Amino acid sequence: MKELTARVFRYDPQVDDEPYYDTFTVSLNSGARVLDLLHEIHDRHDPTLSYRYCCGSGQCGSCSVRVNGEPVLACMAEAVDGMTVEPLNLVVVKDLSVDMEPLLEIMASPVTSEEATLPTKEETEAIKPLRDCIECLACVSECPAIRVTDFLGPAAMRQEMRIALDPRDQRNRIPETIEEGLFTCTSCQRCRDVCPKNIEIPGKAIEKLREMANRQGLTLDRHKAVAAIVEATGRSIDKIKTTFLEQVPEVVEPDCEVRGEVGFFVGCMYNGRLPDTALDMLEVMKRNGIRVIIPKEQECCGSPLIRTGQTQFLPELKKTNIEAFKKRGIDTVMTMCAGCGSTLKNDYDTPFKVMDVTEVLDQFGIEPPAKLDVRATYHDPCHLLRGQGVSEEPRKFLRQVVREFVEMPNLCCGAGGGVRSGLPDEARALGELRNDEIQKTGADVVVSVCPFCEFHIQESTDKPVKNLVTLLVEGYRKKDSGGDIHSPSYD
After folding, report:
1. CATH for 2-98?
2. Secondary structure of residue 432 in the 3-state scheme
């Protein structure tokens, strides 16, 4: 037996003005689950505690709660000392019980007809990754789009795709799916990460439904415009200034002994909109002994097309990009754009290793910069944190270069999944939520490592938004000038 202490959320809307927390200390067997803890509290300490459970074996989804901020099934998550147990981010009925009924009622049901045929083996295999949903609604509770739009949510989209793949239901569900908010998903992948059944809803459902919508001519006009630019120019944005690729040679040698070599996949934003940031990256690489090879024939990675379901000429883009690095014998391709990196890692089959710039710097190590006299917070790009699993590396270097680093909750900024281009009002609303958290930190500067996040967040906040490599360059320049930590870097 072991003794555990836990904080438990309490709130009865019929009685309480505000939620509060009770703290309980209980004795449990080693390896006990959160559900065991709730049973012990209910049976021995407070019989008024409200929570749900049924099967106790991870198959019904009814016991879903949040533990230390993360959605879990209470029957599957291990109880640990000092944890906080809260309801999902849904309407609270009482304590840990939330109102699931309205959200379950909106999910579509399959309708068969006499002309329907049974699924083939191939169709059955396609359905399998989507049919394991236990309707715990963890994905719905964490979806950022639901907070600012009428989106029915990831669980409903998963169900729509499951029906669309089943030949026994011969209806065209795509127009209704669009009305339900198909294009409001930001591809943040939060739903995938919290799903206890590991269902890849964005990739296996939402993006596939968008492909079906595209075949029916129902893609959003602004998304069609982006695809047209990519098809015509190989880039997802119009040229408005001298590009990064036009400013640099194919091979950039370091200022010191060569310690490593990478190819650089530039990405459309750093090439055409934010070339100065990419030039800052080269300064960091040169100072730290890393040779950078930059194939000039590389094109858009295709991420804007994949996320919006416009994949007709994606194979040509993949072939061009892979060959550009392969023929130069490059073993490691570095990205600065989180979306490009996630796409190359997850949607390509490459003969080379793909690494984010922060992973490269972590692998080789860097000369310590001088500290800047600023308080900084960090925004996790969704396609870096969840798309690539990169979290600590940027924080490691940020701590080295600023006086004070303060965390803030991870939230999607609203720029991904085609939302910034296709549904700007939604993107703006999510940007405002991001700014709310930024203001709470009291930070002087917001730091990220994604051009879309940087660009979008800057429109949502009065704080300067900078890429991590730019701060490293500032730290090196301060070091070279003999500055110290007390020299102000920002007004």
Report:
1. 3.10.20.30
2. helix
What b/e readout covers 264-284, taking b as 16+ CB neighbours within 10 angstroms?
bbbbbbbbbbbbebbbbbbbb
pLDDT in tens, 36-74: 999 999 999 999 999 999 999 999 999 999 999 999 999
Q: What is the pLDDT of residues 251-306, one digit of tens each?
A: 999 999 999 999 999 999 999 999 999 999 999 999 999 999 999 999 999 999 99
The C-alpha atoms of residue 324 and residue 330 are separated, in whole angstroms, by 9
At residue 338, what is the residue type?
Answer: A
Give the H or E element holding residue 353: strand 353-356
- For the stretch 126-147, pLDDT in tens is 999 999 999 999 999 999 999 9
Strands (DSSP E) contained in 132-259 are 251-252
| 442 φψ region: left (φ > 0), alpha (ψ -120 to 50), beta (else) | left
Residues of the chain with CATH 3.40.50: 244-363, 368-480
In this predicted structure, what is the pLDDT of residue 133?
Answer: 96
Q: Which amino acid would we find at residue 475?
A: G
Phi, psi of 33 (to 5 degrees): -90, 170
Q: Which residues contact 17 (CB under 8 A, 6 or more apart)?
A: none
Q: Is the pTM of this model over 0.85?
A: yes
3-state secondary structure of 22: strand
User: What separation in angstroms does the CA of 186 have from each of 3, 142, 234, 424?
Assistant: 42, 12, 23, 12
CA distance between the termini of the chain: 57
- The strand pair at 2-10 and 20-28 is best described as antiparallel
Q: Which residue spans of the chain are classified as CATH 1.10.1060.10?
A: 103-215
- Helices 338-346, 451-458: crossing angle, 10 deg rounding: 150
Strand order of the β-sheet with 402-406 is 402-406, 372-378, 445-448, 465-467
Fold classified for 368-480: Rossmann fold (3.40.50)
Q: Which two tokens stand for residue 131?
A: 């049919």
What counts of helices (H) and strands (E) characterise the chain?
Answer: 24, 16
Superfamily the domain 103-215 falls into: Alpha-helical ferredoxin (1.10.1060.10)
What is the C-alpha to C-alpha distance for residues 172 and 194, in angstroms, rounded to an integer? 30
Computed over its alpha carbons, how large is the radius of gyration of the chain? 25
Q: From the CB of residue 70, how many other CB atoms can be counted at a distance below 10 Å?
A: 12
Q: Which CATH class is domain 244-363?
A: alpha beta
Tokens read off for 288: 């730290």
